[in-house]
Amino acid sequence: MIRNGRIVTAADDFHGDIGIRGGRIAVLGQALPRGHREIDAEGRLVTPGGVDAHCHIDEPPYLNARLADDFRSASRSAACGGTTTFVPFINQLKGETLAAARDDYMRRAAPSLIDYGFHMILKADEPERIRTELPALLEAGLRSVKVFMTYDGYMMDDAQIMEIMEMVRAVDGIVMVHAENGHCAHHAVSKLHAQGRDGLSYFPETSPQAIEREAVHRAITLAELTDTRVMIVHVSGDEAMEQIRWSRARGHRTLAETCPQYLLDLEPHLHSDEWETAKYICSPPVRESARAGDLWRGLVQGDLDLVSSDHCPYRFEGDDGKKAFGEARLGQVPPGLPGLETRLPLLYQEGVATGRLTPQRFVELTATRPAQLYGLYPRKGSLMPGADADVVIWETGAPRPIRHADLHDACDYTPYEGHGVTAWPACTLSRGEVIWDAATGHVSDAHGRGQFIPGRRGEP
Amino acid sequence: MIRNGRIVTAADDFHGDIGIRGGRIAVLGQALPRGHREIDAEGRLVTPGGVDAHCHIDEPPYLNARLADDFRSASRSAACGGTTTFVPFINQLKGETLAAARDDYMRRAAPSLIDYGFHMILKADEPERIRTELPALLEAGLRSVKVFMTYDGYMMDDAQIMEIMEMVRAVDGIVMVHAENGHCAHHAVSKLHAQGRDGLSYFPETSPQAIEREAVHRAITLAELTDTRVMIVHVSGDEAMEQIRWSRARGHRTLAETCPQYLLDLEPHLHSDEWETAKYICSPPVRESARAGDLWRGLVQGDLDLVSSDHCPYRFEGDDGKKAFGEARLGQVPPGLPGLETRLPLLYQEGVATGRLTPQRFVELTATRPAQLYGLYPRKGSLMPGADADVVIWETGAPRPIRHADLHDACDYTPYEGHGVTAWPACTLSRGEVIWDAATGHVSDAHGRGQFIPGRRGEP
Amino acid sequence: MIRNGRIVTAADDFHGDIGIRGGRIAVLGQALPRGHREIDAEGRLVTPGGVDAHCHIDEPPYLNARLADDFRSASRSAACGGTTTFVPFINQLKGETLAAARDDYMRRAAPSLIDYGFHMILKADEPERIRTELPALLEAGLRSVKVFMTYDGYMMDDAQIMEIMEMVRAVDGIVMVHAENGHCAHHAVSKLHAQGRDGLSYFPETSPQAIEREAVHRAITLAELTDTRVMIVHVSGDEAMEQIRWSRARGHRTLAETCPQYLLDLEPHLHSDEWETAKYICSPPVRESARAGDLWRGLVQGDLDLVSSDHCPYRFEGDDGKKAFGEARLGQVPPGLPGLETRLPLLYQEGVATGRLTPQRFVELTATRPAQLYGLYPRKGSLMPGADADVVIWETGAPRPIRHADLHDACDYTPYEGHGVTAWPACTLSRGEVIWDAATGHVSDAHGRGQFIPGRRGEP
Amino acid sequence: MIRNGRIVTAADDFHGDIGIRGGRIAVLGQALPRGHREIDAEGRLVTPGGVDAHCHIDEPPYLNARLADDFRSASRSAACGGTTTFVPFINQLKGETLAAARDDYMRRAAPSLIDYGFHMILKADEPERIRTELPALLEAGLRSVKVFMTYDGYMMDDAQIMEIMEMVRAVDGIVMVHAENGHCAHHAVSKLHAQGRDGLSYFPETSPQAIEREAVHRAITLAELTDTRVMIVHVSGDEAMEQIRWSRARGHRTLAETCPQYLLDLEPHLHSDEWETAKYICSPPVRESARAGDLWRGLVQGDLDLVSSDHCPYRFEGDDGKKAFGEARLGQVPPGLPGLETRLPLLYQEGVATGRLTPQRFVELTATRPAQLYGLYPRKGSLMPGADADVVIWETGAPRPIRHADLHDACDYTPYEGHGVTAWPACTLSRGEVIWDAATGHVSDAHGRGQFIPGRRGEP
After folding, report:
1. Contact B342, B260 (CB under 8 A)
2. Among B3, B21, B27, which would you mutate to test the A interface (most chain A Cβ atoms within 10 Å of its Cβ)?
């Protein structure tokens, strides 16, 4: 029984109690009868547990670098950051069947502390495998795949993407698209190298907004031609937003996601050629235009659907991290930032605390909508009776700086070091069990308790 | 205790029971203990009672015509249509103080069967009165006023609107704007009369979309200059929508409402000069562009906030109705359609049953969002514990034609005669009391039980 | 005979000779036979004489201030700046008939050194006079009128503008619109005064871009509703441009003009409360957005039709100039800048010399297009055989600062003091006569040689 | 001496005489002295000879089909249609060097009756050849190349296009782009075949507007990233236009061309599966949206720069024409329409005669602007002294149907059979020689008189 909280859902904001039984929400009410166990939420915000629909965990190495987090550390970090469900990627190894890859990731995920789903990354180099194997996996329950318009080995041509879209449409699933034009990016990088301008400060020039905008327009067109739902992931700036708005005004249901790194003003960190810059290198790059607030307008007005972390945790130091290749030069730093644990506090701070977002919209963007889109609803993303009792009780108060030392991932830095936040998960419940209690600093060690949640078909 | 319903809120959709105590929602749950009184909602949709934020009741006559509904008949009709709260207008009589007008409407509303709030219509002809009296009324709790950019006696110049906007902004209220350019409309009508083209079939030419679009652009600008929240009421077509989208993409929080008459394809009824056409005359006119579906896109994508009825019930026959002036000519038919009772069934049918809208979005547009915007939330528009137990239990099934004979207003026709709908309120509860039961056809006669609900300040 | 010039028209750019006979262009060719008089244009640019379609000369005083230029000084200044035709305004005095006003201005213009046409300013306060008298004047040859959406005494309501538009459309003329929303401007000024923020540095706040943008949208709508050609004069910034582009993309033939003061970056001069700021006060205000270059894009891409001067020459010093009212406060400085003589050199410098505009486009914007639009073509704006021999021979070379001491108007300053230009009229011919020769510094004193050029009907 | 014509240039419209000497315009004037030979143009329109910047002549076969026209017949047809310069394509044969291809086409063009330039088509399959050989050809004077985003063997990826753009930018040339997304088109065709929907009436579905719009957006982006001038050729509909407008409003100098087949309403001819449909098959397809007039707006407002023919003359009958492959099925009909001779009469008819375009704009779109853009100006596209005396004298009068029997190409049909036109070249002069005289029906047989006109650098 969670008592006397300020309970916020994607629609509502009220005071009351939440009764939990058998790992599910049993009852919502006011002055409910005493339960076996009582959690006092007096004066505290109570929300559904966060759903992080975009994170990379335990995937194959890139260059020499290896993701720091496996499912054990990632799920622990997520729990401490208020996320009770995540949806990482199945990333098939060379030569592996798609089914084998799926099975492999089911094994890798076994030690998870929190519940999970999966998207599947599809790569360009085995089109025949996709053609023959994907339909069965979709039939078996896979609801979302991710394709890339850039990156060697990943980048597909438009016909291949359309073919995949049609397969996914058959199960009313979602095609996630990494929208950057790889040909253009490749051209830009080659030119910078040829000109000897390959220090890290040139990173923004490897993929200016036009390269993302073009790919977004193209992805929208492919979805229009195949009548498929497309999710533009990690939208980074106003030019991509313009295309998304344009398509929605024309009646297309283009879906779009952004991430905290594109909402905060990280771009000034990209001006130096020193190694430190590597901490802020991700793709697409963080943009100068963050300051103009156009992505925030997208969140407020409804033209963006989700805020995910795109957690991609390369350590900064060490021979398996950002510096693993050895030189602070373009093309030799794996792109990606850690962010699983900081996603909700940062969005609360910069969104709700500043008055840009209502608490309800915060819940919608970070829990309800991702659960709905990826078929995890109503078990996830909801506090209604029958839903899994995934709940976050928030502590709010004076600003408190984010410190990596306080985080629980296996990375060795956070790009948000020192950023003050005024809300932090005091207590996280997963199916009714307290898995994080800030008062004691105790994280559950019940690794393996996390369950795979299959995506449901045809969620809006 | 409402048992085993499919409960839909603006965010959620789940199965369960609703426990009611003291006129309020006490508890939501599954398999809750037996209550004093049980309503079986097995297999039925259960939603918050509708909130109709735009209706004209018992206002002064226009030309010779008189609104058919007083608060008694209007509230009965609303209840039977699933609306448990409405927000009509205070329409001051010539010479009356604003406070006297408010008090007068409080008296007129006394026999209401359902709860109510009020907006206040402000007119152009007593600017000094507005300047001196309005601040006190706002201070006393008025949260929303309506101004007109057209109609003799009502139409204000832009400076007057800005002055009012600044007063309303001081209490974080909302200025509703009837956006048609009265000068242009007047010019159009004069010209049609001069050309002898004044049959009812010319009605669309009295206010083409450009006249609405211009006024919308202007209203948005006035709101931008005064940093005020503006609600564009009864948006009728794609050109007005274009302006609203444009302003929202620029970051303005322009609010906008549409009505069923603009979403359905009523325009073909305007092609005749016969009296019958008068049944479809309202301002702005219903548009040919309804067929293109742009307003539906606005509802789906979030660029429209509300669906209200703009209930304005002139009888068709009789010497106090549409024909009261005696000639089927332009300028001699009072504009306005009845729609309080049909609003929810029509929107459910054309929105939810067709798959355009999720049930959640239906609830948001018709109950939660209007309650929030006009400060009635969380008492209204919510099913969460603590909210007033205003609940609708829906019967769904085979299409059933709307017949005026089945409606409960005091009008003598409906523009939707024969339109099939597949959902209809089976039972309406207001603060826990059943006020409409379709099974018995019984409407409560407890006139006077309705309460005035003051608007809260600063709702988002 | 003008010999060996680089001759530029609105379309062409070639080397050759121009033969003149009887005040008209007789022949264009290469190595033409020797004429009576030879002007050597070797290495020099030769263009049609400029047509300035927007200038205020000898109009009634504003507040205590009086325009410095009469037709004598204005035409001299124009000639020295390469303008051989101007089109000032007839500005009717209180109580005067429109015909009397026209006749009065025909008399005032008698001493002109250059040819001229007239637009007529229409004012709000005598609608009946306009209604009864304007048709006859239009029938008699008036082709363009100007209406104001701001300024006490001038500002019309939209119905009145529509009525005028319909009269002007009947002769296929043009309605010029000063597009600022006077109600909004009035509100802004009142508020600034009430707040004691009435120093000259607050001038930009009296009419922010939104006030212009709104009026532009409205003017476009009125023209759309009446199917009339509208000319948005002195477009000042990107928000007005956005509306013009929007309307043109929809197929409306919206015409638009800008002026050098909106193309150069004068806005930094508005930051002080000192009297000096008055030198840069005009309506609409010069904008910060000039730096972003959107108006230049409009000139390049064809979304702007004309560059005029909006010459409005109030002296800075003296009891009939900018300081005439006595206080450096908002509302007490007449808005308007001198610019007749500097228009062409400034546009050449910032347009052609910088590579933004081709020389042909320069000629089109400043001579050919204004002549065509206002019915003066092919006598004016052309170098083709049969055209009036109005020709400018340009001296180009090292930058030379503009100095008011070198100008020929009756004003006492130029807002462009010190601005370097690389092209200057070496010689100006009007109907074959040299009226300005920079080599000798001689300006013709043949005042009265200028002729009235009636506007032709229906030019595109 | 051409006497007493109504002479129209891209800017001017006047009456006078044109004196010609040595194949060049010597003098323009009125009442000029008598010449050796006089052509009476009294009452006739006189324009610069047309420049057709997009036509396919004597290129390698496609499938089994062969272009009907060689330079002999094509130049004859052009002359009779008022075109005095054309710019066909060099289309390299497999294995040939670019220089050899150029030399080959110089030989093929030898029998031309009119002057000519060349663009070079670049193909995807020999990137290394382009990389090594193209710079020398550009250095040697090639100013414009064409790349394809579709068609097997032609279609390039974006990196290759960017590489070419950078080479062409170095000489300030133009990259012409056939903008359709080949991957999407291939997908569409495969699907139609798989569904057995491969009759000719399905042709529009092989490349809906979205496929062109996407490619246009992408081509614009590539040009933006490389700061190159791009020419979108044969713009076919409103969706492509929207992208062009969008880019120009952002300040990009996107160039664009359309063709008569996209301006007239040919789309109804695509509804049948009969062979007749093949006569109207070209890529991109003619669009239903032609009726809405958006391309006409682009011509009027300046968002389109050129009207070319895209002459691609496959005979309808015979074993080397449209039916050569033998079946009336998708993919087996070579796309392309003849149009060299009808371009100017059709555009005059539908543009000038209907009042959409001024005669000056007609000249600009069809002669002056193409000459300027491709570096042929001022020799071509101009009537000014010094220009080549390429002149068309027009006969105007009652509508006269286009009949293929009256045309002079080597094709066997025209898609415009029976279309009435009211203006037709009465007489065409090339460098002062009459090469077509409608009065006698005589076409010059001086094949070989045509000259190659090298493109000049850096024309705006």
Report:
1. yes
2. B27
Please answer whether residues B44 and B82 qualify as being in contact, where contact means their C-beta atoms are separated by less than 8 angstroms.
no
Into how many domains does chain D fold? 1
Min distance B14 CA to chain A CA atoms (Å): 7
How many angstroms away from the CA of C294 is the closest CA of chain D?
A: 8
Partners of B27 on chain A (C-beta within 8 Å) are 27-30, 32
Give me the phi and psi of A363, to 5 degrees please: -65, -40
Inter-chain touch A225–D210, beta carbons under 8 Å: yes
- A183 neighbourhood in chain D, CB within 8 Å: 157-159, 162
Contacts of A301 in chain B (CB under 8 A): 248-249, 302-303
ipTM of the complex: 0.96
pLDDT at residue C291 in the model: 81
Please check whether residue A242 lies inside any domain of the structure: yes
Is B36 among the domain residues? no
How far does A295 lie from chain D, in Å, by closest CA? 20
Cβ count near A195 (within 10 Å) = 9
Contact flag A188-D158 (C-beta cutoff 8 Å): no
Judging contact as 3 or more Cβ pairs under 8 Å, the answer for C and D is: yes
Nearest residue in C to B207, CA atom: C225
Could you report the per-residue pLDDT of D373-396, keeping only the tens digit for each?
999 999 999 999 999 999 999 999
Nearest to B158 among C162, C181, C225 (CB): C181
For chain B, what is the mean pLDDT? 96
What span, in angstroms and rounded, lies between the C-alpha atoms of A222 and A428? 40
CATH of the domain at D115: 3.20.20.140
Number of other CB atoms surrounding residue B129 within 10 Å: 16
CB B213 within 8 A of CB B242: yes
Nearest to A351 by CA among B460, B250, B302: B460
pLDDT in tens, C78-120: 999 999 999 999 999 988 999 999 999 999 999 999 999 999 9
- Mean pLDDT for B257-277 is 97
Q: Which residue has the tokens 């092919």?
A: C378
- Chosen from C180, C189, C217 to mutate, greatest number of chain B CBs within 10 A: C217
**CA–CA distance, C373 with D21 (Å, rounded to integer):** 35
The C-alpha atoms of residue B259 and residue B236 are separated, in whole angstroms, by 8
Residue A365 has phi, psi (to 5 degrees) of -70, -30
How big, in percent rounded to 5, are the helix, strand and coil portions of chain A?
35, 25, 45
Checking if the pLDDT of D289 tops 90, the result is no
Residue C57 structural domain: 49-373
Residue C459 reports pLDDT greater than 90: no
pLDDT in tens, D391-443: 999 999 999 999 999 999 999 999 999 999 999 999 999 999 999 999 999 99
CA D285/CA D267 separation, integer angstroms = 8
Does residue A269 fall inside a structural domain? Answer: yes
pTM score of the predicted model: 0.96
Mean pLDDT of C359-371: 98
Give the model confidence (pLDDT) of B49-91 as tens digits.
999 999 999 999 887 889 999 999 999 999 999 999 999 999 9
**In angstroms, how far is CA D447 from the centroid of its own chain?**
21
From CA B58, how far away is CA B107, in angstroms rounded? 11
Could you tell me if residue B44 is inside a domain? no
A neighbour chains, 3+ CB pairs within 8 Å: B, D
* Tokens of residue C312, six digits: 């409005």
Distance (Å, whole) CA D327 – CA D309:
27
Do the Cβ atoms of A24 and B380 come closer than 8 Å?
no
Tell me which residues of chain A have a C-beta less than 8 Å from any C-beta of chain D.
157-159, 162-163, 181, 183-184, 186-188, 208, 210-211, 213-214, 217-218, 221-222, 224-225
* Percent helix, percent strand, percent coil in chain B, to nearest 5: 35, 25, 45
